[in-house]
Amino acid sequence: MSADLYLKNAEVVTEKEIFHGGVVIVGEKITEVVRGDHDIEADTIIDLKGKYLLPGIIDGHVHLNEPGREVWEGYKTGSMAAAAGGVTTVLDMPLNSTPPTIHRDELTKKRAVAKGQAVVDYGQWGGFVDNNLDNLEALNEDGVIGFKAFASNSGVDFERLDDDMIYAGLSKMAKLGNMIGLHAENEFVTSYLAKEIQATGRIDRAGWYESRPPETELEAINRSCFWAKTTGGNLHIVHVSIPEGHRAIAKAKKEGAHVTSETCPHFLFFDQQDFERIGPAAKCAPPLRSREMVDELWQCVAEGLVDVIGSDHSPCTWDLKENGMDNIWKAWGGISGLQSMLPALLTEGAHKRGLPLTSLVRMLSANPARLYGLDDQKGAIREGLDADLVVVDLDREWTLTEDQLFYKNKHSAYLGYSFKGEVVQTLVRGKTVYQDGKIVADPGYGKLVRRSHSYNF
Ligand code: ZN
User: Fold this and answer.
1) What is the CB neighbour count within 10 angstroms for residue 190?
2) 249-288: buried (b, 16+ CB within 10 Å) or exposed (e) per residue?
3) pLDDT tens figures, 45-101
């Protein structure tokens, strides 16, 4: 039988090694991983001319805002941005859509809306708030990849958890074989500090990060790790911005807790001074940190302490950013970064700091597949798996401009920045969905993915 597609003459990157070779695809699957240059019969043969071939990225942290806030993003534009960024699976957060995905009915509605729109594959997080502990079984049965929860206020209609529900939820996760993805910041101290700073009349940008200092994040990390350890529950701490946070999680892991850590490209790319200059487009929580911490965070990445990297793409309409230009408290917090994640990490990681591409593959594809229960289908260049692939021109230098963005709202903290390393082509299940600046798949090509096995990270 002749193959459908043979991608040849590539530098193939896995989480363990880089080798010269290619990939053979029949239908939606990888049927052979080829080492070296060989003549193989296929309907289509693409010579990648020495470019790098990586497994597609599984971005476990994306806010697509649909249904209810589709003016912010939506599955169509969000998935197009994903494809342009080498992301072949997006996992959508349960908040910022209305109503939030905290009940089976809302998940069903969200899936109905998503169907027919996405150009990459997609899955969903369930939401865990202060009054839906009894809904988690049903959401788990429906294949949510995890349960997002907040230790601090979320800023939208999604109630945060106190220790009682963190404890109860983690205990439940141990039984369900799923996990909680926690936004870990201390609500009481951050809101006290915000009030104190606002009382002095300050509206400047530094006030934002001064109200959410590193220790308020570290406390929530330590506390939730403690409950994970004592309950045996599975805990994933999202968007960890501080090096001490990753070290605390690594320590808890060593002590037997089922905890994992995520960081985001913006914590590795921008610092507080960038935030003061860029303004609302770079406002997020936890906030951007000092340059010293950014460098230490890269050290954590180099030491293998970071389990996954997710974009935390959290878009909004421009007016919600613009109204915070002169008063940072008024701006919506969230960075539009899905499309720039891989270029940012190639630039600052692979080129500037010599981070091996194999490490990037581990944090962007292989570990997310294992963590979210998708590794029997995705996350690696291996025979039998979905042919989700990204072709990267590692040396291409370019600058991000508004017209390149596929987001519904064309703003991003990364606008105007120069990158080294560009996504040339993205394939989802054997089909090219993005090539040379253009989306070449129809909305609706993307398929729903579900957690296929219990937590076993
Ligand atoms: Zn988020």
Assistant:
1) 20
2) bbebbeeebbbbbbbbbbbbbbbbebbbebbbbbbbbbbb
3) 999 999 999 999 999 999 999 999 999 999 999 999 999 999 999 999 999 888 899
Measuring CA to CA, which residue among 238, 177, 247 is closest to residue 452? 177
Q: 63 CA distance to ligand 1 centroid (A)?
A: 6
Name 79's Cβ contacts closer than 8 Å, sequence gap at least 6. 64, 90, 117, 118, 119, 120, 122, 443, 446
Cα separation, 127 vs 158, whole angstroms: 8
CA of residue 93 to ligand 1 center, whole Å: 7
Give the position of tokens 């905290």.
102
**The pLDDT of residue 413 is above 90:** yes
SS3 391: strand
3-state secondary structure of 119: coil
| pLDDT at residue 263 greater than cutoff 90 | yes
Based on C-alpha coordinates, what's the Rg of the chain?
21
Q: How far is the CA of 61 from the centre of ligand 1 (A)?
A: 6
- The torsion angles phi and psi of 121, rounded to 5 degrees, stand at -75, 155
pTM: 0.98
For residue 350, the 8-state DSSP code is I
Instruction: Identify the H or E element spanning 358.
Output: helix 357-361
Q: Which secondary-structure segment (H or E) carries 276?
A: helix 272-278
pLDDT at 267: 98
Average pLDDT over residues 134-141: 98
Are 45 and 8 contacting, i.e. CB atoms less than 8 angstroms apart?
Answer: yes
Per the listing, tokens 């929860």 go with 149
Tell me the two tokens of residue 345: 């990490």
Helix, strand and coil content of the chain, in percent to the nearest 5, comes to: 35, 25, 40
CB 146 within 8 A of CB 180: yes
**How far is ligand 1, taken at its centre, from the CA of residue 66, in Å?**
14
* Distance linking the first and last C-alpha atoms of the chain: 37
**Confidence label for 224 from pLDDT (cuts 50, 70 and 90):** very high
Residue 97 Cα to ligand 1 middle (Å): 12
